[in-house]
Amino acid sequence: MFSIGRTCLRGIYSCQWNSQNRRQNRACWWFSFLSFVSILALSWMYVCFIAFNDRNDVNWLAFKTLKKWVNWYMIVMVISAVLATYCLFLLVFGLLHLIIREPLNLHWLHKVFLFLGLFTVALGTAGFCIKWEEEWKTVYMSFQATAPFLQLGAVVALTLISWLVFQSYHRAKTAACKVFIMMTFLVVSAAVFLCPLAICSPCITNNLPPKPALVGHRGAPMMAPENTVMSFRKSMECDVVAFETDVQLGKDMKPFLMHDNGSSFLLRTTDVKDKFLGRDGDMNTNFTLQELQTLNAGEWFVRTDPFQSVSSLSKEEKMEANNQTVPSLSELLVIAKKHNVSLIFDLKNEKNSTGFHNSDSYYITETIKKSGISPDKIWWLPPEYRHDVRNIAPGFKQVYHNEQDMKADGGSFLNMKYSSLNAREISELRGKNVSVNLWVVNERWLFSLLWCSGASSVTTNACHILKNMSKPDWHLEPNIYMGIWISVDVISWLLMFGLFLWQSRRRNHVFRQNTSERSVPLLPR
């Protein structure tokens, strides 16, 4: 059985099913290259996993260029997972070769695939740096949530690899080589064992802040077509404190809800190509509200399944989604007033205005006042005509994009991207009674981290997931974490010390046995 296992390992790694006595040049170099690419592939997979929270940004950016909705991010995820799995398995086979002392003759086809993998990771990293540079903040931020677990994983990996390190140490023929191997291993071990001293996570704390409130980003776009009545109704089932939406004015100056703006603003989420031939590239000012409400604003959701969530809907819900239309702002205000839910929105075309009384802000403020909704339920975000709006609607809550504008205006409500503030800054703002809403938060790990940081509320696409969380995914008191850290390090150190002693004694035993066999005289015939 052992012989068959050796043959299989040799066949997978080098595609040589028979034992090869010849040495292959640069075999160790190729194993080092395999280790390097494997680390890069796993690191890239980690980046893709962390950036999954913002996957819709990638797909939307691609749609703006290609005018066709494809889940490009999921394709990238699948390719990255296949690459990481392939490299990891190949690395494991290489390590097994070292353990059983098989030659490291990596087949040329594996070498080609490794170079392709390296090119793929380099291409993805370049894309991040050029088109999505701000996402590196999210990756850096993620270590506050994952660093304690990565450290534990590194300790386990170090303990397992120590077997090979000690083997190399005992096989080394010169004292200098032995010293280099052991010193390198000790430095790496010290870094891994002691890195928790540098780990700073808001989830390692004695005092857990209250759970952040939820704001429905365009309603509940994972469970219904975005910015539709069905979507906002679904978000109410999550007990959201506010609806977040996007408002534009039509040709008749009546406000409607739609995220995409500019030319072709209807192309992604409606059937404008079928209903208004040749007008799919028109601007918002070319359509009246009556025309917009003849469009189907839900069929695209069922057909493209942008969040891979349609399968969770019932047959009746799918039929309802298929029949959604473009809602007016007045319709949403009726729902918000009836259910006592606040409203926050972006204005997509305000920069094109030529004065307050010709602006989107003016017409939308008038629409809000006519609805009869309580003024304090309006979280006013657009900055362009803020002071004019305050004069005619003083009861609106003023919300700001940055701390500088808020302080200058004497406000106390921030609405920022989740990666714009660190845990310390959030804590300081909350200490000054400033409300902090962070967007867009979809993943449990990120919501847990912001919960521990003390955020007031988060805007989310995944309210149906976050509403069920009664506590962060993980939260430890500092003393408990320190106990776990020290215990794991001590156990690892004892195991490695035991392995080193066992290998030393075993090698000495083999050496004495070989020496005694050579010293036995041959008997004469």
UniProtKB/TrEMBL annotation:
Which GO biological-process labels does this protein carry? Answer: lipid metabolic process
Quote the subcellular location field of this record. Answer: Membrane
Primary place of residence? membrane
**Where do the TM regions start and end?**
27-52, 72-100, 112-133, 145-166, 178-199, 480-502
Q: Tell me any Pfam family this protein matches.
A: GDPD
What topology in the membrane does the UniProt record assign? Multi-pass membrane protein
Please provide, in alphabetical order, the Gene Ontology terms of the cellular component aspect for this entry.
plasma membrane
Gene Ontology MF term list? glycerophosphodiester phosphodiesterase activity
Q: Where is the GP-PDE domain?
A: 212-470
Q: Which InterPro entries match?
A: GP_PDE_dom, PLC-like_Pdiesterase_TIM-brl
Keywords (A to Z) from UniProt: Glycoprotein, Hydrolase, Membrane, Transmembrane, Transmembrane helix
Family membership noted in the UniProt record: Belongs to the glycerophosphoryl diester phosphodiesterase family.
The protein depicted here goes by the name: Glycerophosphodiester phosphodiesterase domain containing 2
Q: Please tell me the species this chain comes from.
A: Sinocyclocheilus grahami
